[in-house]
Amino acid sequence: MITVSHLSKTYYNPDGSILHVLKDVNCEINPGEVISIIGPSGTGKSTFLRALNLLDPPTGGSIVFNGENILAKDYPVHKMRQKVGMVFQNFNLFDHMTVLENVMYAPCKIKKESLETAREEGLALLRKVGLAEKADVYPASLSGGQKQRVAIARCLAMRPEVILFDEPTSALDPTMVGEVLSVIRQLAKEGMTMLIVTHEMKFARDVSTRIFFMNEGIIYEDGPARQVFEKPRRSATKAFVQRIRKEVFQIDDPDFDFPGMETRIRRFCIKYNIAEKCEPAFQACQLMLKEVMSAYMPFTLRITHSELSADTSLDFMVEGLESSPLAAPGVSPAFLEQLRSLCKDIVEEPTTRGFRVKLSL
């Protein structure tokens, strides 16, 4: 459906310096594919998407859509934009129009559909995204998630062959992300060709047929979702998709600031939307410190969270130790039973530097 060859995009800064956002992008996109575009900020993901729709025309290269080079001098851009829809992160709804009028506008204005036909199809699309009851209200009264679902319905009203999603959930409250992603999942099941710039790693893994990992202005890795997430070929891809967040504490004194540590753990849990892990983490820390770890100072405590697997753990690492602190004489069965009740799993393992106890919360 789409063939991209040697695509580049260059910006010239006011000081005369040159910024190469896209350097040499090459790919083929087939009908029915759902491609998630992931990668660090500033690597050209959104620029690539906007270049495909000519909202930000590329500097060089070619884009062939259904056999036609859309970068050719006399190519009718409006023709392509009727077939390639785009959903933006900031909705871009018309505030002076009702929800239904937003959905009807393009079919009436561009495709010259009758008001009756556009209204009937618009209501069907709003029903599809779960917002038929909001047809006659104005966007100002909607939540962010509802606005984005209206934006998707508006895009679908033009019957596009391809939809480009530019970080469709980045402007939403975390509680509203799910309702938008569920609509995109349904479109994927129906066979809609989609390219999605997203930071939602679990969603990208679950819904995509392919993943583009962009880095340094190129498609750094391209492959099936399972392969890219489970067995990436390049180290930069592996580091990105695992997205392991961590907070580290070096505890070397009985007078260590433990209340301050609890505050930092709480902030960590809130920041990464795992507030329910706060209390088990506090209890496990207190148990380990009271019953075991006070005899092993200095040691390192680390709380980690994987955004991909949603696994959260506490690691207690003692350098130079050859056996598990939990196997030391004096560690009571009652303590171990209480610790197990707070954890999904307990791993005791030697490392090149010492010994580690990992508590999965």
Descriptive overview:
This protein has 361 residues and is of the alpha/beta class. It folds into two domains: 2-242, 3-Layer(aba) Sandwich (Rossmann fold); 244-360, Heat Shock Protein 90 (2-Layer Sandwich), CATH 3.30.565. 34% of the residues lie in helices and 28% in strands. The chain is built from twelve helices and 15 strands. The protein has helices at 45-52, 77-81, 99-109, 115-128, 144-156, 177-189, 201-207, 225-230, 235-242, 258-271, 278-291, 333-342, and strands at 2-12, 18-29, 34-38, 60-65, 68-69, 84-87, 162-166, 193-197, 210-215, 218-224, 244-251, 299-306, 312-319, 345-350, 354-360. It has a six-stranded mixed sheet, sandwiched between helices. Helix 6 links the parallel strand 7 (162-166) and strand 8 (193-197). Helix 3 (99-109) packs across helix 4 and helix 4 crosses helix 5 (144-156). The longest helix is centred in the middle third of the chain and has 14 residues, at 115-128. It is elongated, with a radius of gyration of 26 Å. The mean pLDDT is 91.
